[in-house]
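Exercise 4. Each item below gives a protein and its sequence. For each, produce the structure-token representation.

Item: Holin (Variovorax paradoxus).
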Amino acid sequence: MTQTTEQSIVETVTKTSPPVVVSGLAMGGISINEWVLILTAIYTALQVFFLLRDKVYRPWKEKKDAAAKNA
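Answer:
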């Protein structure tokens, strides 16, 4: 294959990928709105997890480790 042919194939695949994914998800029984809702919920849960880990758990663990080291 020449570089032009390979580039043409890549461009075609790139242009057709989003509609194929959307159609596949819709045929799977979950609409795009539901996917957005699911992914937003996952993203929010991860943000809460990282916030709690950084602001609550790590300071608590550091205090606990420091107390154990001094004892």
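Check: The chain has two domains: 1-30, 31-71.
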